[in-house]
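ok so i was messing around last nite and threw this chain in just to see what happens. nothing serious, just curious
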Amino acid sequence: MGYIEDHKAESDIRALDQKVSLLMTKSKEQAGKNESFEKKIHALEARNNDLETRLKAAEHNALARHLNALLPPNSTHTPLHPLHSIHTNQPLRNFPKKASDIRTMSAAEVAALLKELDADVTTRVNAAERKSRLKEVIGVGEKGSVVEGMKDLGLVDGHVEEKGEGDKGKDGKGAEEKKKKAPVKLPGKATGPPPGKVLPIGPKD
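result:
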């Protein structure tokens, strides 16, 4: 009888050990899932912070680009409005103080600025083309840079109406074409008595 009870107790202990082992395995699996979930949350937070930084930098750069577009190109006196790094939203290092300074910048400085502004330079193979691209991004020295800056700020919808020769209106006709000579009214023959003369009233003799 005692042997049977001891055997049963050992069986119960082994079953309990198996349950404890299973619980520990599941606990480890759950801990791994929690860790993975926390990593995903941190990744989403980092991505959200990065997007927020980019958005703030883009807003600042849009305004700076618009203001730079109003400056005279290649000016040696008027300071530029500095842009911010799209990655940190901090003022760019080695940013040209004036538009004329771009001509004397090294290729490495131009490339570094374009990288911080996340500007596409894959098609700009030489230094001159990259400097031209930098001017475009900054907002100086390029035709239409004022309009581009206003687009970034949402001040215009990107549609610009162009008037042709003769300042054509919506109907396609120029102002000169619309001008027509007014008809000249010639004085007709007078049907009444001349001024100052009174006709006699009554039968003729």
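not much to say yet. The chain has a mean pLDDT of 74.
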